[in-house]
Every structure is written in structure tokens, then in C-alpha cells.
Amino acid sequence: MSSRKPINSSPLFHQSFGTRWLSWLLLGAALVAPACSDDNVGPATTGPMSTMPSLGSPTDSASNAPPGAPVEYGDPDEVLIDDDELGEQSGVPSSAADPSCVASAAVETKCDGVDNDCDGKVDDVDVMGDGFCDCLRVGVFGRPGGLSSADFNQWLEDQGTTTTRLHDTALAPELTLSVLQDFDIVVLDWVQRIYTDAEAATLRDWVQDGGGMMAMNGYDDNLPDTVLPHNSLLQSIGVEFAASSVDDYVTKFAGHPLTDNLTLDPKFGGITFLGGRPVLPLSGMFAGRNTAIAWDKDDTVVGLAQELGTGRAFVWGDEWVTFDSEWTKIPEIQQFWVNVFSWLGPRTSCIVPKPVIPVIR
Questions:
Q1: Which of 88, 98, 179, 231 is in the most buried spot, having the most CB atoms within 10 Å?
Q2: Strand bridging mode 311-316 / 279-281
């Protein structure tokens, strides 16, 4: 496992720190400014998540989302989480620092459960400014995909996370809550065995209590066998992979935090989807609030986001997004992963700004 990322002079690092100081100054100005009113200004909303539909509809641009689709935009250095939502869970909005806090550092650099820089956020460590919280604990379940030149685990560790691969054989031990509690995010890679209903319920309960889970598929052409292990876990949250194949660049996305800053230009953007699977919500098995966020050219759902209790799940039908050796040919993948880990990560700690990742062409 690689060591933590060293502090450097990354422009994104200094930009995010500068943005933080500017936010404090603006907040101070707002507190002392006289109250004013405008008859033309309507009541504030609590955020786009309150209008999220059960399932969205396809659009060719994330900035031109269908009516009612979840859209959460703004400066890339802003934390994409509603202060109202955070306040409900923690009692303190993300922008409010504890007045009794005594700063021990100008910038957070330790994963210790303490707000060391007194900015109101705990463990918001991202010394390289790459959009990955360095305190994230990631569990990757199953084997890697079939491309031997790729090393997704190493890439995640290079971003500063602590990543562990486990359950990578057909003899994987029982999936228990004590195993899941070691992680903030669980990624279901090439799952190697059928899980029991009790194990699936354990995963569901862990997500419902605040965990973040992502599942992928498309590893081989052995249908339907290749979807059965994943579905043995996913059916507990009312979702499954279909036993059919999709080959295309995905360029139809709904407006959603998972699609932020994707250009969606089929010439330079989009997400490769080769031999992947459609994603289906199971009728009569509703577990959480589902939102379709990605479609193929035939408007088949290939990406689905779910909010379940205080946790989140993201089901994506293909594994090519893990092949870091291919990313020079798949320009948008790194931005995709920044979005995924930001959305699935903890809601009250380890929250860092999301940068715009330069497109590799």
C-alpha cells in the first residue's frame, strides 16, 4: 500500500485554500450587512435533492437536464452537499466552525477525527487538491477486471485513499458488518461468488446507515452467470444488472453530482461502455430513492443512483472505468471517479472540494 500523498505546491491545493479564506471573509460581511428585502425574490429552496424523481429521463447534456432532474452545480471548489442536510445529521452546518475551536494547523493534513484548521469540517484532507479525500477508506470486493495492464487499486492509493481488495476468490468468507465497518466506500468489482440473502441484507443495512457503495459489471460474456454474483447483493436494494450487453460511449446523462463537469462531447468526452449491462430497478422491491443518471444511445439505463437512509449507492453497468491504463483513450474517466467518490463518501466528514480535472486528449 502506498504512502500518503506529500504536500506540494499544486495550484488546485492553493486555490482551494484561498477559496476557503474568501468564504470566511464573505460570511463575515454577510453577518454585518443590514438586512434587505426584494419583493421580486421568491422563497429559497432547500436544494435540488428535494425534487429528485424516482427515475429521470435522458438528456444529451448535463447542463440541460430533464425537468425535475437532480442538478447541483456551482464553483468546482464548492462542497456539493446541502448545509441543511448536513445540519440535520450533525447539528452543525458545514460552513460553521466551532467558536471554541483552537486551530492546530492552517490546513487539515491529519486523518484524526478532529477539525484541526477550525473550518467546521473534520478530516477534509486533500493535500494534492485532486478531489479525493485522503482519509477515505475504500474496500474493493472481488477480482480486478480482465485487463492486466490496469491497476485500479494502485491508482486509488495514489490519490491518497487507503484501499483494500478483499473477497477476490470463490472461497471468500462471510460478509459481515464488522468487515464493512472498516470502510467508508465499498466498490463491488468482479464479484466471485453468490452471496446469501443474509449477507445482502447486511450490505443493505450498512448502506442505509451511511455507507457508500458502487457496483459494476460487464467482465465477460458468460451471461447470465456473470451478473448473478452481483445481483445476489444488489437485489436487497431493489436493483439488478440485466443479462444483456451494451457496447457504446455513454454521452446521455442527467444533471446530477455524479455527472458534474463531464463535457459529454462524443468526440472528446463520454464514458466508454464495452460489453456492459443495463441497470434495472426491481418492481415491488423498492428500497431507496432511485434516479437514472446515464443512458446508452437507445435510452437504456446504464447508470443508476440510489439514496437509501443516510447512505448512497451507485450502480454502473460496465468495468472499463477501472482500467487506468486506458484512460488516455477515455478522457472523462478521472472526473467521473472524482464525482463518484465525492457523492458516495461520508456526509459529515472527509468532504473536500471537487476540482475540474483537465481532459486528457
A1: 231
A2: unpaired
